Amino acid sequence: MQEKEESVLTSRLSYAFGAFGHDMFYATLSTYFIMFVTSHLFDKSGGGMNAKMISYITLIIFILRFVELAIDPFIGNTIDNTSTRWGNFKPWIVGGGFISAVIIAVLFTNMGGLNTSNPYLYLIVFALLYITMDIFYSFKDVGFWSMIPALSFDSREREKTATFARVGSNIGANIVGVMVMPIVLMFSQVSNNGQGDNRGWFAFALVVAATSFISAVVVGLGTKEKNSELRKNKEKTTFRGVLKVLTRNDQLMWLSLTYALYTAGMQITNALELYYFTYILGDASQFSILASINAVIGVFAVIAFPPMAKKFSRRNVFFISISVMIIALVIFLLAGSSLPLVLTAAVLFYIPQPLIFLVVLMIITDSVEYGQLKFGHRDESLTLSVRPLLDKMGGAISNGVVGLTAVWAGMTAGASAADITAHGHMVFKLMMFGFPAALILIGTLIFFKKVTLDEKQHAQIVEELEKTWEKTLGEDVDFIAANGDVSDQYAAPIDGEIEPLSAVADDNFASGKMGQGFAIKPADGRIYAPFSGTVKVTFPTRHAIGLVSEQGVATLIHIGIGTVNMQGTGFVQYVEQDQKVKKGDLLIEFWQPAIKKAGYDDTVMMVITDKAAKFELETKSGQVKHGEGVAKIRV
Question: pTM for the complete prediction?
Fold first, then answer.
């Protein structure tokens, strides 16, 4: 038990640190790289050529991001079709993390002066490096967030894992804002009105790149995919079927449209905050204050998600969060040069972001099972690739809007707060507050009208999928013994009183639809292996387990009636899929008072699920102890 808890904690912490480095990289790419391009990459003496080069680079990023968006679903499909001894995801997380880290460090340079000595060659090299970095970052990004449904099928456990990850990503994204200007100024040779120089920005990029790669390695070493029959597809999705898989999942598509509009608006405002401190307040160093506050408060916001989702539902958490963000934008619009008001508005705008991210991530994750039940095929990475795809689309729109805003408002190389005209202020406010508010509100309306997948519906979907597992548990297993007794001592899995299967209050079992077997009214809460064999199926709710004996007997042990709705609460599982067990090994422990309190029957059912094999089951009656022979199977 202690080893299992330590393993789960190690996995969560490793995944959280991976998110820390991952979002440090993403925040640098989506927010601070465009600041480097508009304010530091070109010398202020370049005049009109500066604005032209900034526009070209902004346009290149915008176009490449949208070209790369078309590749993302195929990246997800490639990861789904990957099979290595390290799993589906880890090779892409570590490999993609290394290549993207190296390239981003190069992009934070002028490439030996190429940007001014041969500007058009610089643009070509820049485009090639950027698209390469973006593709390998996408492999890492899709692989990383796609691990959640592979780590657990339980909706609540996914929330815990995602919450750990979001704590890490929140700290990572905000620690960049805390350290960006101190590192830049520390390594800069010229202060440049408190904005630093190219040398300082390159040092900052090196720190981010190294942290991002190290965190990817930690994920590779510290996490473990959970194997289950649910994750096994009998056929792979072809490239031609990728778009079909995505577009036919209506809940995934409506949520995607919602999130695309929301994340574009949110990222535009976030990316322009440093410009606000630099060119409106006139002191870029004060931006570290905001990032520090957000890093602390954001952690509490993330931790608050599970209890909030439980109390209000994810859907209501989404609406509450959007309301706070709109209020924050109004305060921001009226804040002017008041630092306290600016900080208040910026913090209020940030607090809901982790909550909305988790709501969207959970619904997208649950849509994996939604699509599997609806279409009979499971596509984890392909489905989860949608979220990073949308974030990158939002980043592409944000980079384009921010680059153009910087040029239109006069916030480019060499400019200071005193240089910004009234027209520049007006343009800046329109693009930082008005445009994002419109996008966010339109996305919210779509969510309200079209997105219906919630926790209750997902629990029903999982229950339906589990029924199909139970029916097919014995499909690939044949009786391999000769005629006669296949199992002389088919032992009781638990202490209690045997009763006929026909007496239980579940028609699926009582009618024999699930197979032949017997039931036991339990005297305690420990399930033991009734024979030596292999664990073939484990369930995310831990209320059942599928075993195959050494003689080929496929058996399902099901704890309670309706207990799937408990989502694993009160159940502890001590074995994993494909693990070899001996007769009498402890498999599952459950707390009977929890089942009674939830209003469910705790009867344990044990059935042989192989419908093709012809056999007779001879069963004892009365009180039994676990390990005691209670049945014989005669072929």
Answer: 0.68
